[in-house]
Amino acid sequence: MPRCSEPTRCTLPARHGAGPLVGAAWVLEELNRRIDRFTYRPESVKELPSSGWSTPPHFANADEQANLNDIIASSLNGAPTFAAGVEFYEARFKKDKGSQEAAKRMQDGRWTRKQQQGDVAPARQRLVSLKPDHSLDKVVHLCKMDSWGAVSAAPLRVPGNASAPAASLLLAPEWLFSHFPYGIFFPAYRVCHAA
């Protein structure tokens, strides 16, 4: 269970091995900090680079997956970002609630692309591609076989701390979700299981 001395200063219980902070530990601790921050201090969204315009009530997206995506991009790029997971959704939510300022941002294609892809695109360039073991091709049955390809690993670092050891995060490959009949897999799923 995390311990919080103040709303933005939470720490996880002592890590086993009590060694230096590594990239993976930083990712988990940063995720904890961000969820705590935007849950208990939603007004702090105004402190972010592209959200100073926001007025109450603040959306301050505390969704763990959206924040995790930004944190992984932060780790890969070496600089913190809140753009895609928090700042984009602040404008999107506020636009839906009638904010003229948010509507102006959401209508600005350049601003929207910057929030959604500005930090994500460079982070994707830093991913490492891992090839699957093709000796298993005969036993693999996927409804969308062309998704049986490379998977990616993310070399995680602690932003601003070059001496901290790196760690790797294996990103879930597309085919891992192929048994769910939705999204890109739905047409292939229907054809595959129609027989």
TrEMBL record:
Domain of life (superkingdom): Eukaryota
UniProt-annotated stretches for the region Disordered: 99-118
Bias (Basic and acidic residues) ranges: 99-111
Name the UniProt record assigns to this protein: Uncharacterized protein
Highest classification ranks of the organism: Eukaryota, Haptista, Haptophyta, Prymnesiophyceae, Isochrysidales
